[in-house]
Amino acid sequence: IQKPEKLIERLVKASSKEGDIVLDPFAGVGTTWAVCKNLNRNFLGFEINHQFIDMAEKRINPPVVDFELK
Fold it and tell me: Alpha-carbon distance 46 to 29, whole Å?
């Protein structure tokens, strides 16, 4: 079950500081990973469901569209 980002953010802030490593042994679709990225924490997570891993990677590293304004 995915947890709200605000809840995870509160937990991460209360239990770590910038630069720390946060471990999530059930990473799911990457909610904790996304929060850690926003809060300048390192992240180590485990997930056995390949679909969840793909979704997490897309969430954390969305495709970049490069265009030039004229």
Answer: 11
